[in-house]
Specification:
Length: 191
């Protein structure tokens, strides 16, 4: 989870993003990466040092190769997500547009989900614990807008019923959980 605005900016550079992708697959040196991405070793080394300064890559080995010390680098994570907190001044806020049928509200809720789960993962990793989560991901094809609206209404009723059944405000040792249910048009994956 990238929460620092400077690290987010660094990671979004196309060359650095490509280097991160390569290093998440397997460790490599500036020389090895230069051959893969078609850039001069010096330019790759410059970008690697920038990524390293922001904690996105780390050196795992240094070995002598001829007259040069070769630094073997790896990505510090298998994948990265930029938290909305990295852009706190423009972070979407569900309270600003509470219309459950608006795409802006859905985006704000999704941003909060990314921020919160990212913080939970970071905290759990530090405590060497797991985070109790659950998610459903699926697709449904509606014959009409009326069917989609009926589905949304029925889904809202079912979820509201489950929340009413299981929510216990008086549980002293209970722990609050957030539930997010979203429905949006599917995107075709580009390959």
């Amino acid at each position: 989870m990238i929460e620092d605005p400077a690290a987010a900016e660094v990671s979004l550079d196309p060359i650095r993003a490509r280097l991160l992708a390569e290093l998440s697959e397997e460790p490599g040196s500036a020389t090895m990466l230069a051959a893969k991405v078609g850039l001069p070793r010096q330019k790759v080394n410059y970008h690697l040092k920038t990524l390293e300064a922001h904690g996105l890559v780390e050196m795992i080995e240094e070995r002598r190769k001829g007259n040069v010390n070769e630094r073997i680098m790896r990505a510090t994570a298998a994948s990265y997500v930029i938290s909305p907190t990295a852009l706190a001044s423009v972070e979407p806020d569900p309270a600003r547009s509470p219309d459950q049928l608006s795409a802006s509200w859905l985006l704000a809720v999704a941003a909060r989900l990314v921020r919160d789960v990212g913080a939970l993962i970071t905290g759990a990793a530090k405590a060497r614990k797991r985070v109790a989560t659950f998610a459903i991901d699926g697709e449904v094809r509606f014959a009409s807008a009326a069917d989609r609206a009926a589905f949304a209404e029925e889904l809202a009723g079912a979820v509201t019923g489950l929340v009413s059944k299981y929510h216990d405000e008086s549980a002293e040792r209970g722990r609050d959980h957030r539930i997010v249910v979203a429905l949006h048009p599917s995107m075709k994956e580009s390959r």
